[in-house]
Model the fold of this input.
Amino acid sequence: MAHVHKYERQQFEKLFRQEQIDHLDKRLQILDAFLQIEGHVTAGLLEQKLQEQYGDPFSENFVTETLELMCRFGFAQKNRFQNGEAQYEHRHLGHHHDHMICTKCGRVIEFENQHIEALQQEVAHSYGFHLLQHRLEMYGICSDCMQQRMHQMPLYAAKPGERVVITELTGGSSSRLRLMSMGLRVDDHVEIITNYGRGQVVVAAGNQRYVLGRGLAGKIIVEPEAGKNTGQGADAAR
Done:
C-alpha cells in the first residue's frame, strides 16, 4: 500500500499545482496525515493528528476545505453514516468496498464481497438499468458490542431494526394484564420499529404494531433473537 500512497501523493501535488490551489505545502501535510489513517476519520480528528504530528496550527475549516478538495479530485470519499458527522476515507482508484455500521458504538467495518457486486449488476441488468456506482450500508450491532451487552434487557434498550424475544413481563398484575390484553406474551418474537431513546417505542409482533410508553416498555424483558434457542415466532404463539 505504501507505493500506492506515494503515487497518490505525486498525483495530488501535480493536480493541485496545475489547478493553482493555494497553501500547497500545508495541504500536502494534511494528505500525508490522512494517508496514514486506515479507516474513516472526521475533520476534527484529523486536525488533532496534525497538531500532534507537526505542532503547527491547522484550523478545522482549513482541514475540511482540503478534505473536500481531495473528494473533488478523487483522493477521498465522504460518508455520513446515519446522517451523522461527515467521515472521510481513502479513495483508491479501481477499488470498491461497502460498509457495516454498528448503531451502538458507531464502529464502521469495511468489507468486500464479489457475490454482492455481481448480484447488484445482475439486478440492475434485469431492470434494464445501467449501473454507474453504488453504496451499500448495513446497520446492526458489532460482535464486540453484542458480547458486552446484557443477555436480557428491558424492551426500551433494544435498537431499531433489532429482533428480540420476550422472556418476561414484570411489574404489577395490572401491567402484565394490560400487556397480555394488547396481545404481547412471553416467547413472542418482536421487531423494534422505532426507538429514539426517549418517548414512545413502536414495535411489531407478527402482523401487529404496538405503541408503548417507555414505562410500559421497561416492564417487558427481552433478549436478542439470536440468543434464544427455543420458542416459536409470534404468529405461532398465538
